[in-house]
Amino acid sequence: MAPINYYDMSRSKNHKYSLRLQLVLHARTQGIHAAARAFGASRNTVRLWLRRFQAGGRSALVEQPKAPKTCPHKTSPAQEKKVLAARAYLPCAGAQRLKDLFDLKPSAGAIKRILRQKNLARPRRRKRQRKNDLRAIKAAYRPFERVQADTKPLFDSPAYWPQMMAHKLPRHPYTVRDVKSGALFIDYANELSATYATLATERFLGHLKSKGLDLSGSVLSTDNGSEYGGQDKSRRNRGFHCKIQRYVAEHRFLPPRTPNAHADVESSHSLIEPELFDLESFGNRQEFFFKVRAYQRWFNFARPNYSKGGKTPAQILEDEGYDPAILLLDPLDLDQRLRHLDFSSRARPRGGQDLPALPDKCELRRRGPRARWKT
Questions:
Q1: CA distance 365 to 368
Q2: What are the C-alpha distances in Å from 245 to residues 141, 203, 249?
Q3: Pick from 156, 193, 195: which is nearest to 277 by CA?
Q4: Spatial contact of 199 and 338, defined as CB atoms under 8 Å apart
Q5: HSE on the CB side for 14, CA within 13 Å?
Q6: By C-alpha distance, which of 22, 65, 28 is closest to 47?
Q7: Cα within 13 Å of Cα(34), Cβ side
Q8: CA–CA distance, 183 with 146 (Å, rounded to integer)
Q9: Please, are residues 169 and 286 in contact by the beta-carbon 8 Å criterion?
Q10: Would the N or C end of the chain have less CB density within 10 A of its end CB?
Q11: Are β-strands 363-367 and 370-374 bridged in parallel, bridged antiparallel, or unpaired?
């Protein structure tokens, strides 16, 4: 039987070893030229495998790895240690953020490979539905033309909850975020209420107005929570909606079943928990506000946003011709602020959605079946 052609057999993964063995045995008995003609191979190929067989026996005919034995540009062990130390210090950061924050020498791809080899890379979630890329639309907005406000309880943070209960720390953040620049503003309180939502949002909008920003064309969107008046059956001349309409052109509620409509402010909640609450410890309320103030300034002035071209909110505002000092609005303790508000110049407080008078400055007098407030 005539031998099978060498080049046809070499394409098969299962018969390479047996083909080389037949080639070598034929060359030893019939000669190199006869083996080359019989197997349809060049004489140099026959000499190559015959030489390897004579030097190492049958084991030399096994397929050898073709990868280079050395890699001059491979990341050094010292650089790998720096990458692992940076990831241990900031476990929530990805490869690109680790490189930027810790000034690491390896590329972002090399850092990804190191994390993947050490089983430190987070598995990517499979997206069931492709989301629309709205970055180009958001980039066309002017700063503070679209603003999103939201709240989120901190009860579900396993690292923060024991400290919150032990030291009586704030339980609810009142977050406001600019869609264009990604700038973040957060106030904190012990309770979730329309009073605190109104106080925090009105303070933010008043700050922008004091800096000379024109908010006549701005839109502030919120969810349908009761703290934003979303559960009211009819419009009223007081409460959150009435207060906010004095500053912006429109207060817009999210339509039902649109969880991605507030992606910017919702993503800030998913960022602050691993970057702050999972890493820091808080001994008292004063230390809490010191650290959340430092985080907010770092977020607005130093943290690059890779979905916005790797720029910080301060850089985006500066490119648009705005003074980055607008971002210097530190987090406020809303409980303390409410205790120090002066209601002496206000009319009789109505309670409900409006800011009430302080309990220690009010006397509740009952006249008949209804209770009335009197300062």
A1: 10
A2: 20, 14, 7
A3: 156
A4: yes
A5: 0
A6: 28
A7: 10
A8: 12
A9: no
A10: N
A11: antiparallel
Q: Are 55 and 82 in contact (CB under 8 A)?
A: no
Asked if residue 150 lies in contact with residue 175, where contact means CB atoms within 8 angstroms, the answer is yes
Q: What is the CA radius of gyration of the chain?
A: 34
Q: Phi and psi for 13 in degrees, rounded to 5?
A: -85, -20
Query: Residues 277-320: pLDDT tens digits?
Result: 999 999 999 999 999 999 999 999 999 999 898 999 999 999 99
**pLDDT tens-digit readout, 149-204:** 999 999 889 999 999 999 999 999 999 999 999 999 999 999 999 999 999 999 99
Residue 85 token pair: 């130390």
Q: What is the largest CA-CA distance in the chain?
A: 123
Strands 250-253 and 363-367, bridge-based pairing: unpaired
- 13-20 contacts at long range (C-beta below 8 A, 24 or more positions apart): 16/63, 17/61, 17/62, 17/63, 20/49, 20/61
Helix runs in 140-193, H state only:
161-167
The C-alpha atoms of residue 9 and residue 23 are separated, in whole angstroms, by 11
Extract the tokens encoding 60: 């030399």
The two structure tokens encoding residue 316: 């985006």
